[in-house]
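Researcher: Final request for today, and then I'll write up notes for the group meeting. The sequence and the SMILES for pyridoxal-5'-phosphate follow.
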Amino acid sequence: MTKYNFDRLIDRHGTCAVKYEGLDQMFGRHDVTPLWIADLDFAVCPDITAALLHRLEHPVLGYSAAPDSYWDSIIDWQNRRHGMKVAREELAFIPGVVKGIALAVNYFTSRGDAVAIQPPVYHPFRAVIEGNGRVVAENPLLFDGKNYTMDIDGLRRVIAETKPKLMILCNPHNPIGLQWSRETLAEVGRICSEAGVTVVSDEIHGDLMLGGRKHIPFCDASDDCRRCGVMLGAPSKTFNIPGLVSSWMVIKNPELRRDFYHWLEVNEFSAPVLISTIGAEAAYTHGEAWLNEMLAYIESNIEFTEQFLERELPQVRMVRPEASFLVWLDFTDLHLDQPRLMDMLISEAHVALNDGAMFGRQGSGFARLNVGTPRAVLADALAHIADAVRHHVTPTAL
Ligand SMILES: Cc1ncc(COP(=O)(O)O)c(C=O)c1O
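Model: Predicted protein-pyridoxal-5'-phosphate complex:
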């Protein structure tokens, strides 16, 4: 018996939801099914709403300090869910994961410095680096037509050639949905530690492991990783509360964190926000059953998508994610250039997916599908994509 209803269709119009209100700006029309930006169309765990409403019953919303119970809820969660021990002094609040990355880029590097990333990867990594006058050093993932792996030799080469001060790692990796193995993370830690490169590990999808897999937090993978790692996490993707903007940072190495945490503190970048901490604490304390059910629903949506593609649309392949609710679809067999592919999805299928090329040129020929939506919406969108593709594929290409 399940307790939560993820099949429920919830009208999000008029709620300032970027996924809906941003369609015109991003795709040039709003009469399309939005399966792009990475939030879920599901109602949050009711305990989170109850905790927020309870606090809002008090009529004064003054300056506030996060209680010990907030910090304990993060520490307990990391231990319970991932077996990672975190001490209070290793933790800092940050106002969002991308902002945390931006703060680290600004603090640990100077204008003109190289920062390494591994495309195709979450597009704000590049935007933050370039927008702050730093230079992107690319170590693209390896793709054999089916699976992606990290290019460890490439990483060694890129570090030797470009001498980056920082690397931004995505663990698990968006848009592919890959959880890096302990061995791979330890190797990254060894290479970066030896070269004096700080590794900012974005672990926002780390709680969303699928198929019984375990998330390996970067700062738990090896001593080298602990030495050079700045780990960022959040309850936002996990519990569908990105609108509350609550995230955290863990740095194990006291040398690495001392001055940085002081800089965050004096600039009040790490000052916790009332509503964020209430939502986060309620989520970590009461949300686990909701999360487990939600992940089971996502797994069945992924299964559904895989079977649908095999049956109805074999010319489009998916990379089966190990984590999270984002599915990387490979349209390269259609031989459409990227603008044509996106135009087909928008103008003919009427479905808004993330353009694969936004994650790097290696994403050309791909699109990212968000399956964090009721099954009926997903089924309808896939049927429309299938119709549009069939219309495009010549009999010889089939
Ligand atoms: C890998 C990754 N990092 C960060 C974010 C955004 O985090 P925040 O909203 O906390 O900045 C996302 C959202 O999709 C993401 O996929």
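Model: The chain has a mean pLDDT of 97. Residues 38, 96-98, 122, 170, 174, 202, 204, 234, 236, 242, 247 surround pyridoxal-5'-phosphate (CB under 6 Å).
Researcher: Thanks, that's everything.
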